[in-house]
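Follow-up to my earlier ticket, as requested here are the two runs.
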Amino acid sequence: MITLTKTLEQIESQSNQTRITLTNDWQQASLLLEVMERLDDGILIISNDGKLIHANTAAYDLSCQLNQGDLDVNFVPPIIWEFCQVLINSYNSYPETNIILSDEIKLNKSITFRIRVRLINLERFITPCLLVTIENQYESITNTAIAEIKKYSLTPREAEIWRLYRANNSYKEIATQLYITINTVKKHMKNIHAKRQAFVVVNQ
């Protein structure tokens, strides 16, 4: 009877421990999903046969742009899937190598996506899955430019010019867009570079 009581206590203790573990796992999974949803970068998890397992909101939005407005949430953009297949073929040839593929997709002059693909092993899947990250280069550059504008205390006009410059516009293109001369652009860029240099010197 004592042995049975101890055994029952052990089972109950183990059951409680399992419940705690499951709760912790669920909390960690929820936290991970919440973090993924708040990322500006798109995150896609795709099976080896091209089925979409998970996509965060940013990935859905970016995929719609790549699919030219197709709103099918289960549809992996063909250009991304082709890239994934290159990785799968590489992995089959070199299974011991941790391969990460990276490339850029240009939709037009202002919209460029950086795609990164790698294989990940998830316990619930027999074969590795594909983790795809999609970064909107324009948004990333714009956010960087905004931070730099504040960091270097640029004037409103300097800020306009710097944003366009960071988006890979030439001096001529900046002048055309802002209806100013190229010499004016050069003058402002000279001032911007002086402020950047001064910031570096002060913070050394």
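Run two:
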Amino acid sequence: MGNEFGGGGRCLYLSNGGTEVFVEVLMLAVSDLAEDEWDHRFAALLSWQDQSVMGRGTVGFDLGDIDWGESPVERARSKEFVLRAITLALSRHRWDELGYQPPFAQDYLLQFRAMVESFTPADGSSSGSGFPSPEERAIASCARHRILSALPHWEGCIRCHQVSAAVS
């Protein structure tokens, strides 16, 4: 069982372990780059991919379900944010904090970047179903790991949940 991320006519199918690595390395970058409301909404979407909370094999999203913005300028800015986050993650940003070497993470990120690059957001007609609302955006940062989290929905960030799942 695995998880699927789609968009731009492409699909990134990842095992449960691959999903954990992909979300974790991308979340490290997103947490350090997020500034605007949309960025924090995207961070919340990533935090919702936490299988320790949502269940293994039950996460994933399609780029077409994201509310990229109403205007062409907003959509371009949102897409550019995701591409900047991927680029930062590809530079192995904060990977020294992981406690392990993610051998396939760069491949996952390269595939995701190709997916985002080939994706054209709809002209403001997307309802953004499945995309966090402004009220659900990730604005809290885990003090221990410096990663945005879906507080108050869940206590802790994706790293906190991994540690507690490993102890259980």
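The only thing I checked on run two: The CA atoms of residues 138 and 147 lie 10 Å apart. Let me know what else you need.
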